[in-house]
Amino acid sequence: MRAVLVVNPQATSTTAAGRDVIAHALASELKLDVVETQYWGHASDTARAAVEDGVDLVIALGGDGTVNEVVNGMFSAAERGDRAMPTLGVVPGGSANVFARALGLPRDPVEATHRLLRAVAEGSGRMVGLGKADDRWFTFNAGVGWDAEVVAEVERLRSRGQNVTPALYARTALSCYFRMARQAPRISLQIGHEDPIDQLHSVFVSNTDPWTYLGSRPVRMSPDTTFDTGLGVFALHNMSAYPVLQHVAQMLRGRGKPHPRNSIQRANAGYLRVTCTEPLRLQVDGDCLGERSAIEFFSVPDALRVAV
After folding, report:
1. How far apart are CA 123 and CA 7, in angstroms?
2. For the whole model, what pTM was predicted?
3. How many CB atoms are closer than 10 A to CB 280?
């Protein structure tokens, strides 16, 4: 089997020694090419070239951003021509690894590599549904508002040399909350063909659950959402401290059932449209894509085969 291993050397928990161990193990069973990413978009370019070259398996070694780039590169090649879509393999190498953990893969990269090789040998895998935000594919979540502001600020802090940790995310989320709580709601949400819902502060879109993790603790925002359903959506009407703290506590306890007066929650949505009275940031799979005034979200069932 021909495979390409896409390695992000800047990923939080990826080391040169670990990369070499993983590559050696994979090369013992696969006809393997290894590509280390050198710029933003390199993982996407590599995955696109792998699909065009007829590779059987594309393996992402890195965090959720690397996985997202690889997935988008694979689909960009498949959508441009009559190309067979390879299977995706994932070896977690980032800080959160939400997609890999939602698939039930081991957190340890070496253990995940052994699981991947066993899946290849047995021909086992599963189809997963994905989401799209306009033309950008996402594997586990997207959002407009609070979460996108947090992602953008964490990216800014990381560019200044700060280590990305759950504590940094928590502090950043708190500071962004206080800033947004003083602002008027600027978001309108349409779910399917229903009438739009106005006066929203944030919209969170899930493709699976947990939505993310704080260290080892899962954040359960849409418990009824899986890779086999449509999208889950959670939107905030009220940014007052008490209802927001209630929501956060419920999500950390694994309930994710907010009070309907303060929020909107829906599962198994096939289509969402978000419009903003002024451009707001959009994030997908933990990467900020800049500001948008309108975004359409789509659920795509059975979009991709993943080796598990």
Report:
1. 23
2. 0.92
3. 22
